[in-house]
Design goal:
Layout: H1 9-32, H2 40-58, H3 62-79, H4 87-101, H5 104-113, H6 115-121, H7 130-159, H8 171-188, E1 192-198, H9 202-209, H10 211-228, E2 234-237, E3 242-248, H11 252-267, E4 280-285, H12 292-308
Antiparallel strand pairs: 1-3, 1-4, 2-3
InterPro entries: GGDEF_dom, Nucleotide_cyclase, Rev_trsase/Diguanyl_cyclase
Domain GGDEF: 190-309
Keywords: Membrane, Transmembrane, Transmembrane helix
Length: 309
């Protein structure tokens, strides 16, 4: 209920650009009609949206969302008093705009609180209560649709084995599949090695360059593992900056060769914001007389040592 709607950077930037062009076009329209007194507001809002667009392209912030919402409300306040028809269209636009930019709970409360304001802006003032029923119906319908979308998204997240930020498997799936590989190694008398990788630049990239730089690092790591490892090897995200690369039926020397291939591939790539991807690594191989709990404890200890290094 309190989670903001998730928009891709490209989609959000496209929406910002379209809105900016529409406001600029409205200003040009007023100029061509000789309505010079009505040019100022679209021009100011277009400049404000242009600022929000540039901010979104660099780093998505809460401020840009509120700027978009402010522009939408300002245009509605400017247009509603002079309209003799299409009231329901503009009222529906304000409801939809709020739900697209704010979390579901605050959006619902704000839409209900703004009902008297929108009715007062219509011709006839507070006598336009005939629009209240259609407004409340739209609020209920669109809110239920948004709630169902969030419910389906949460359900998909709960059943999705991959991490939400990258192609690696998530923490729960990692330990589940590790237990399966452990049992198979024991029953078939095979080797099992886990390459522990820590990304020391991950938090720094997010703080200095935004989420996009962080996702670029994660994508580079996952794509390199996918290209340089076997199909039955799998990468899992143990925590925020730590990853386990599980290598079934692999000796320590084989795991070191895998590490060398990964490091060579990563050294050849330079990310725009952060440069080459830096890894801290440790190798942990399964002992012949070791149980699963002890093996996972050793993995956790070595992971912690990389984080604190």
């Amino acid at each position: 209920m309190n989670e903001s709607p998730q928009w891709s950077t490209r989609l959000r930037a496209s929406a910002d650009v379209i809105a900016t062009l529409m406001l600029a076009g409205l200003a040009v329209w007023h100029y061509l009609l000789g309505e010079y007194e009505q040019i100022i507001l679209p021009v100011l809002l277009a400049c404000l949206l242009l600022f929000a667009t540039l901010a979104d392209m660099r780093r998505k912030t809460v401020l840009s969302g509120w700027l978009l919402l402010l522009c939408g409300y300002t245009m509605a306040i400017d247009r509603l008093p002079g309209l003799h028809e299409f009231h329901d269209f503009w009222l529906a636009a304000t409801i939809t705009f709020t739900l697209l930019l704010l979390p579901l709970g605050p959006a619902l409360i704000l839409n209900l609180l703004l009902l008297p304001l929108w009715l007062a802006l219509l011709d006839g003032g507070m006598e336009e209560w005939s629009h209240a029923l259609s407004y409340l119906t739209l609020v209920s319908t669109l809110t239920l649709a948004a709630w169902e979308h969030l419910r389906q998204r949460d359900l998909a997240r709960a059943t999705d084995p991959t991490d939400p930020d990258c192609d690696a498997v998530n923490h729960a799936t990692l330990h589940e599949r590790l237990a399966g590989e452990f049992d198979r190694a024991k029953h078939l008398n095979q080797r099992l090695a886990v390459l522990i990788m820590h990304l020391p630049q991950l938090d720094l990239a997010s703080e200095q360059f935004g989420t996009r730089a962080q996702l670029a690092q994660l994508d580079l790591l996952c794509s390199t593992v996918r290209n340089k490892c076997r199909n039955h090897d799998f990468l899992g995200r143990e925590n925020h900056a730590d990853f386990w690369l599980v290598l079934p039926n692999t000796t320590e020397s084989g795991a070191l060769l895998v590490l060398k291939r990964l490091e060579q591939a990563l050294d050849e790539v330079r990310l725009i914001d952060t440069g080459p991807l830096t890894l801290r690594t440790q190798l942990c191989a399964l002992h012949s007389d070791e149980n699963l709990n002890h093996f996972e404890q050793r993995l956790a200890i070595r992971t912690q040592s990389l984080t604190e290094a």
